[in-house]
Amino acid sequence: MKNVTDSFVSLGRWPSAGSFGFNTDILATNPINLSVVLGVLIFFGKGVCVNDLLDNRKQRILSTIRNSEELRRGAIEQLERARARLRKVEMEADEYRMNGYSEIEREKANLINATSDSLEQLENYKNETLHFEQQRAINQVRQQVFQQVLQGALGTLNSCLNSELHFRTINANIGILGAMEEITD
């Protein structure tokens, strides 16, 4: 057993050039071993690590692109639906506008007709009122003229008639009334 440990102990010293052995001195060999291991890992693992990182990055980019494409398609579909709704709303607005204009024109025509009828009725009332006022004025003038004529005739009769002429006129009128009475019997 001593030979085996001696061989390791002898390997712990720096071997002469041309020989190969193991160095068991932990403090002396650890940084060297770590650098060798890291060098080997970097040299051989670089492709694996970098390829894995690149593949992961590529997959994330492709996934992001797919998601973006899906979102773009969804946005385009929403845009088309919104445009279709806009066209529908515009058509409804045009329909309401046209119906509103035709309703306004209909109401305008009805209002004009009603106003025309009212004006015609007012004109008829005015003409009737004027005719009535004319007839009333004519009747008042007739009454005044008749009263003046009657007063003038009474004045003339009173001035022309004396009591005897007056008595004969009354007798003549009584005779006429008596004759009429006999005829009716």
TrEMBL record:
Plastid listed as a keyword: yes
CC annotations in GO: chloroplast thylakoid membrane; proton-transporting ATP synthase complex
Keywords: ATP synthesis, CF(0), Chloroplast, Coiled coil, Hydrogen ion transport, Ion transport, Membrane, Plastid, Thylakoid, Transmembrane, Transmembrane helix, Transport
One annotated GO molecular function: proton-transporting ATP synthase activity, rotational mechanism
Coiled-coil annotated residue ranges, if any: 65-128
Leader sequence residues: none
Location(s) in or outside the cell: Membrane; Plastid, Chloroplast thylakoid membrane
Main location: membrane
InterPro entries given in the database record: ATP_synth_b/b'su_bac/chlpt
Topology in membrane: Single-pass membrane protein
Transmembrane regions: 32-54
Keyword ATP-binding: no
Note: In plastids the F-type ATPase is also known as CF(1)CF(0).
Subunit structure comment from the entry: F-type ATPases have 2 components, F(1) - the catalytic core - and F(0) - the membrane proton channel. F(1) has five subunits: alpha(3), beta(3), gamma(1), delta(1), epsilon(1). F(0) has four main subunits: a(1), b(1), b'(1) and c(10-14). The alpha and beta chains form an alternating ring which encloses part of the gamma chain. F(1) is attached to F(0) by a central stalk formed by the gamma and epsilon chains, while a peripheral stalk is formed by the delta, b and b' chains.
Protein family per UniProt: Belongs to the ATPase B chain family.
Function noted in UniProt: Component of the F(0) channel, it forms part of the peripheral stalk, linking F(1) to F(0). F(1)F(0) ATP synthase produces ATP from ADP in the presence of a proton or sodium gradient. F-type ATPases consist of two structural domains, F(1) containing the extramembraneous catalytic core and F(0) containing the membrane proton channel, linked together by a central stalk and a peripheral stalk. During catalysis, ATP synthesis in the catalytic domain of F(1) is coupled via a rotary mechanism of the central stalk subunits to proton translocation.
Name used for this protein in its record: ATP synthase subunit b, chloroplastic
Protein source organism: Agave americana (Century plant)
UniProt gene name: atpF
